[in-house]
Amino acid sequence: MSERSGIFAGDDPFALSQAWLDEAVKSEINDPNAIALSTVDADGMPNVRMVLLKDIEADAFVFYTNYGSVKAQELDAQGKASFVMHWKSLRRQIRVRGLVEREEGPQADVYYASRSLKSRLGAWASHQSQPLSSRSALMAEVAKVTATKGPNPPRPEFWGGYRIRPLEIEFWADGAFRLHDRFRWTRADCKGKWKVNRLHP
Ligand SMILES: Cc1cc2nc3c(=O)[nH]c(=O)nc-3n(C[C@H](O)[C@H](O)[C@H](O)COP(=O)(O)O)c2cc1C
């Protein structure tokens, strides 16, 4: 532990993640909060896609999506996920592996309400991950929900958040000659105490 200093210092990996993200907000051109979210299907076939990390809580990471999507089906079936955030300008990454649960209460309502009206209506119109016959069919669906849902649509019950409670978090920073710095935080369960190990690059 004592060897950790500078950008790796601290005893709270969520605060550290937030500090790294805050730095990335200043340096990245687009979407500093983008994460590559990985799931597995029932056959163990991995799947990955980008989503936006919306909250770093005291003990979890939160993002939002459609509960009918492929990712949601895989998350609900397996209860596990991993993700990586990579910042090209900072040359750093954070890797996370953990257990997932839905966030479909008032917190999801508040986040949904904070989105632009067009995004809120888009969430109603999109049957995410389902086949779509044409772009115009989607736009017709948008026009339909715009006419029927009014200016203050409620959060669709098929749309909400997931909270990832990590069992493992790795902080990685680029080093000269590929001699990178890596610190892996692990805990046996979500209430456990964190252990930190430095890893070979
Ligand atoms: C930068 C970026 C951010 C994205 N953010 C989200 C997001 O927050 N939620 C989401 O459902 N899809 C997001 N998407 C779209 C997903 O990558 C993906 O296409 C979609 O969720 C369907 O994935 P699935 O079929 O595996 O469920 C984002 C895509 C990109 C490139």
From TrEMBL:
Its EC number is 1.4.3.5. GO terms for biological process: pyridoxine biosynthetic process. InterPro entries: Pyridox_Oxase (IPR000659), Pyridox_Oxase_CS (IPR019740), Pyridox_Oxase_N (IPR011576), Pyridoxamine_oxidase_dimer_C (IPR019576), Split_barrel_FMN-bd (IPR012349). It catalyses: pyridoxine 5'-phosphate + O2 = pyridoxal 5'-phosphate + H2O2; pyridoxamine 5'-phosphate + O2 + H2O = pyridoxal 5'-phosphate + H2O2 + NH4(+). Residues 21-148 form the Pyridoxamine 5'-phosphate oxidase N-terminal domain. Belongs to the pyridoxamine 5'-phosphate oxidase family. This is Pyridoxine/pyridoxamine 5'-phosphate oxidase. It comes from Pelagimonas phthalicica.
